[in-house]
Amino acid sequence: MQWNDGKQRCSWANPNNEKYIEYHDHEWGIPVYDDHKLFEMLILEGFQAGLSWECVLNKREAFREAFDQFEVEKVREYNEEKMLELKDNPGIIRNMRKIQAAVTNAQVFCGIQEEYHSFSEYLWHWTDGKVIYEKGVASSPLSDRISKDLKKRGMKFVGTTIIYSYLQAVGVIYSHEEGCYLEHR
């Protein structure tokens, strides 16, 4: 694939989408410890189910506006009226099951924060704070375990493939492809 700046990137990054290039180069795979960012990415990954990440990324700003900048304390309190308002928002993915899951997941997220003092502590405890380097798979025993635990706690749209993608996005798993200029960061 030919890139305008001459840098080789992962094959999934669209060279014609500046948002995607920016995401690939400056966000994907970088370890995240901030609960606000971890919540945003968890919700966006849930909305991505069955769609492309590029579709979600292109709507990210509309999602931020619609979901109160992903303030978990606000999202956890959304009522039926607010969820119907979201379902009518043409700027986001208007799937009611995913909207309801976002609210449920916010409630569970807050419960995990209370239990572990932060969602970051919960997430990173699975790897003892270490980044896992692997590529070429869509799920792993790690994503299986986290997915199972989140489902047991009541979260929705957190299957092992979604969780694996989430772990890659927030840098728990580092997966830049062979030949990508970020492969050995």
From TrEMBL:
Q: Which Gene Ontology biological process is one annotated for this entry? A: base-excision repair
Which Pfam families does the record match to this protein?
Adenine_glyco
What keywords are assigned to this protein? Metal-binding, Zinc
Q: Which GO terms describe its molecular function?
A: DNA-3-methyladenine glycosylase activity; metal ion binding
Presence of the UniProt keyword Metal-binding in the record: yes
Question: Out of the domains of life, which is the source?
Answer: Bacteria
Q: Which residues bind Zn(2+)?
A: 10, 24, 176, 180
**InterPro entries for this protein:** Adenine_glyco (IPR005019), DNA-3mA_glycosylase (IPR052891), DNA_glycosylase (IPR011257)
Q: Can you name this protein?
A: DNA-3-methyladenine glycosylase I
Task: Please name the source species.
Answer: Roseburia porci
